[in-house]
Each structure stands twice: as C-alpha cells, then as structure tokens.
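Data follows
____________
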Amino acid sequence: MPHLHRSISPPTGMLLPPEIQREIFILNAYCDPREARRLLLVAQRVKIWIEPLLWRAFIVVAREELCDVESSILPSVDFETFRLLLAQKPAMRTAVHTLILDDDWRVKDGSRSILLQLPRLERLVFGCESHTPSYGLLDALSPGTLYRLWADLAHLVDPANALSAQAIEHHPALSNLTHLSTTLHPTLPSVLHLPSLTHLCIYYTSE
C-alpha cells in the first residue's frame, strides 16, 4: 500500500508545458494590466513573459494627480518616474504602444522628450483642458506608427502658421492615422485629406 501511495502522488515541478503556462499568464496580463504586476513575483520566467506586456500602455500624470486615476485599468505613473523608467529599461521604449498624457503643464513641457523615445507608439491621447499649446509636438512622433490620436489640434499646430496648417495632411507622423478625435480647427480641410483617415470625431470644448 505505501508503494501504491507513492505511485499516485502528483509529480513535482511544472504540471503544464511551458508554452501553455505562458499563454495563461499572458491572457491574465491582458485582462487586468494593473493586477498583472503581481505576477512578476511568481517566477523569473513569468517576469520575462509578461513584463513587456505591462509596458504597452501608460497614463502619465503629475505626481499629485495619481490618486485621481487609481481606478483606471491602465497603469498610471507620474512624469518623472516614467522618464526614469525609460532611461533604466531601454527595451520599454519599443514596448509602449498606447500613451495617455495628462493636461498638466509639467507633463506637457516634457512630453516631447518622452515621445522621441517611443518609436512604436500607435495610440496617443493628449490632454487638452488647459490652454497651454505644444506646437511642434507632432514632429517628435516616429513616422507612420501612429494609428489613433485624441488631441486638440489647436494645441499641436499653430493656426498662425499657414504653411504648417496646410501641410498636416503630408505630415510623416500622420501618414497611417486612421482615427482622429479633435476640435474645430483651421487645419480641418487638410485633415480630411490624410491618406489613411477613416474615422473623424469633432468635439466641442466649453470655451
């Protein structure tokens, strides 16, 4: 009987093949990015599998505003911490695909330096509640990678610069843009000629 007990004991070590384990952990990371950070402590192999997935989307805010976005499913980080992460983890720069930038002047002032380090950014949300412009910010984006943009063009394109307003349809950063959400702006006639645009949303501010 003791021999029978030993023969039916569960095997030690991994019970599932590594490829199945990987799929399970990756699915978990996709479903809940915030809670998935705890999985980094499970094992080194799990950290290797899912850490790049946890870098794919961020909300960047001012430090004192972190408490306002704690309920978001996306990880939130203050600007200075995000800047340090990019410096300490070079692989993170190509992993970030979605970025939401808070409408705080401290974030806006440093947003150009951040965007220059994200060559595969596909979705960008740029806060537009304040009246602080960030002219020339589009030039910091890598050509052809951006697919969706939510921003007030009045903050990104100087309406007094007629050449800039007319040439937005030829801007390299917007060559593959399919979705744009923005306000009424003098550049709209040129926006309508963006080569890949399929969805345009015009919203109105409270001004």
In short: Residues 18-31 form the longest helix (14 residues). The radius of gyration is 22 Å.
